[in-house]
Specification:
The protein contains 21 helices and 18 strands. By secondary structure, the protein is α/β, with parallel strands linked by helices. Helix 11 runs antiparallel to helix 12, helix 19 packs antiparallel against helix 20 and helix 20 packs across helix 21.
Length: 583
């Protein structure tokens, strides 16, 4: 997609060393960086992170509460490792390019090293914007596979969901009726509108699920139950019912074959099991979710941590509601996260989305009429019901103002764009949009200048800072410009010193070094050029004196050269040859 920044992360020659390559970005270019990421240290904290997520309860804030600190620390460490060097510059530039094109940026990860799959990438935290990436942008994990891009499946509502809740006696008890009621309640609105049909497998054994799949078509399979991971076979497992009511652990490879009983194969699988998002460290596709996608399922939403009932309900409500209204799967996942955020917990980090290829638009809902519960888009010739639209416009306006106050310019630009689509004359929305775009442009310039400064491109950095130095939001731009201009002058002087050294103009080398020291008193002798210049000049004067017959003067010069460097040219030989004249 044009709005994607797709990052491929592959392992290096040593554990903890990785390469990040920008496969595609709205800003163009295929930049890359080498990074260091202590995966083992992060994996060692997974249990603590899960406990933090489950115990969370926070309100809106600008500072990081103590309870959130573990998420923040890990997320910032991962962000700084991933977005470094040229890749970070491409990311910042892509934020602006995507917004200017009208398509919000989407972060797509190709995880080419097995141990990376188990990391909680949904925690990525950007200190410079003070936000978690998946709060602002869709984030998904793309499973590498041969070209296998579905066209969206044409669906005449309802979207059919097959629910599977195994009731097993030998694992922690699930209140199956409550689980069913929870999901049914979460989907009550789209069900009543005729947009979704939810049916439950009465007997969640292999045979029972196979029989239900035959009664298709099924567009989605929603599993609620227990998951596990076989460390020996390096494969994800889901617990189905056995004929005796005990658990029957089914590997992800066998589960895929079972799902293929449906015609067509369901495009989406949702796994509400506590370990369904976990992958092995040695096999990239061993986790249940990734294995299903690699095997042909277009998308799988899974949970990387244990999820509470309230969060599972909220996610389902937002996720399926967005799907039923035609959203792409990645944006539907973001809707599910936002629903969880309404609970005031950190469990928005728990859902993980895997996709195969570019298959993010899974369904095209067709044949929907107002009688089915969804009012179709109004024709362009139809008048707007201002009584209905006014509250929505006011809400967009207030949210945009809030985003501007928080300097969240991409969000403000999107909200103001939506508002002006509804009403081109609404208050000062047009002026605010122009201001937000200008502010975002300055932000992009600032971060591009910071990136240039970080890599030592002083001239480019100085030009960037000069453009924004009068803006009060960038009070450090002026001092940074002065610092970069000074560093550029120092670099120019060092370059000139080398050029004159190559020409043998050693007196100019010393003159340039004096300018260098005047600009920076701590400046060192670049690669010994100054020391060499002194010796070259003294040697040349001694040679001139020798050729003129002033041998006493020549010997004095050669003595000084030998004192400075006994091995310099043939000074020692000439000193021995003419020493009697110096005595």
């Amino acid at each position: 997609m044009d709005g994607d920044i797709e990052l491929e992360i592959t392992s290096g020659s040593r554990r903890g060393n990785y390469s990040v390559r920008v496969v595609h970005a709205p800003s163009g270019g295929e930049t890359s960086s080498r990074i260091r990421l202590d995966v083992d240290a992060i994996l060692a904290r997974i249990s603590d992170l899960e406990a933090t997520v489950l115990a969370s309860a926070v309100s809106a804030r600008r500072t990081i509460p103590i309870s959130e600190q573990p998420l923040h620390d890990v997320g910032e460490k991962m962000f700084n490792a991933l977005f470094t060097g040229a890749v970070k510059g491409t990311y910042r530039a892509s934020l602006g390019a995507a917004q200017n094109s009208g398509h919000p940026l989407r972060v797509v990860l190709r995880l080419g090293a097995p141990e990376l799959v188990a990391l909680p990438w949904e925690m990525l935290y950007d200190r410079e914007t003070e936000s978690y990436l998946c709060h602002e942008l869709p984030l998904l994990r793309r499973v590498p596979a041969a070209d296998y891009s579905y066209r969206p499946l044409a669906v005449e509502p309802p979207l059919r969901i097959l629910g599977v809740v195994p009731a097993v006696r030998d694992l922690p008890a699930l209140d199956t009726e409550a689980e069913k009621e929870n999901l049914t309640t979460a989907l009550a609105e789209p069900i009543s509108a005729g947009l979704i049909e939810l049916r439950w497998v009465p007997n969640a054994t292999w045979d029972g699920i196979q029989s239900a799949l035959l009664d298709g078509p099924w567009h989605v399979v929603h599993f609620i139950g227990h998951g596990d991971y076989d460390v020996v076979r390096q494969e994800g497992l889901l617990a189905l019912e056995s004929a005796t009511g005990r658990s029957s652990m089914v590997e992800s490879s066998r589960l895929l074959q079972l799902l293929r009983e449906a015609e067509p194969t369901p495009r989406l699988v949702v796994l509400n099991s506590c370990s369904s998002g976990e992958s092995g460290k040695d096999d990239l596709f061993s986790g249940t979710a990734a294995a299903l996608v690699r095997g042909g399922i277009s998308a799988v939403a899974a949970m990387q941590f244990t999820v509470t009932d309230s969060a599972a309900i909220a996610f389902s409500r937002g996720f399926y509601g967005a799907l039923a209204h035609g959203r792409d799967i990645d944006r539907a996942a973001n809707s599910g996260r936002r629903s969880i955020m309404g609970l005031g917990t950190f469990e928005w980090v728990t859902p993980v989305l895997y996709v195969r290829g570019d298959a993010t638009r899974l369904f095209n809902l067709t044949g929907v009429t107002s009688g089915a519960g969804l009012i179709p888009p109004a024709p362009t010739s139809s008048p707007i019901d201002h009584g209905t639209e006014e509250p929505r416009k006011l809400a967009l306006y207030e949210r945009a103002l809030s985003s501007l106050r928080e300097k969240q310019y991409p969000t403000a630009i999107s909200l103001l764009g939506d508002l002006l689509t509804l009403d081109t004359e609404f208050r000062d929305a047009a002026a605010l949009l122009a201001g937000a775009r200008q502010s975002q442009e300055f932000v992009d310039i600032y971060y591009a200048a910071r990136q240039a400064q970080n890599v030592g491109d002083w001239a480019v950095a100085a030009r960037g800072y000069e453009r924004i130095q009068d803006d009060p939001d960038f009070q450090d731009a002026g001092p940074r410009r002065e610092s970069c201009e000074r560093r550029q002058r120092l670099a120019d002087l060092r370059k000139l010193m080398w050029q004159h050294a190559e020409m043998g103009d050693w007196r100019s080398v010393l003159a340039l070094h004096r300018d260098l020291v005047a600009l920076d008193s701590s400046a060192t002798d670049p690669s010994g050029l100054v020391s060499r210049a002194h010796k070259e000049i003294i040697y040349a004067m001694a040679r001139k004196a020798e050729r003129s017959g002033r041998l006493t003067e020549a010997v004095g010069g050669y003595k000084e050269v030998v004192r400075l460097d006994p091995g310099f040219r043939d000074a020692m030989f000439r000193l021995r040859r003419y020493r009697p004249f110096g005595e």
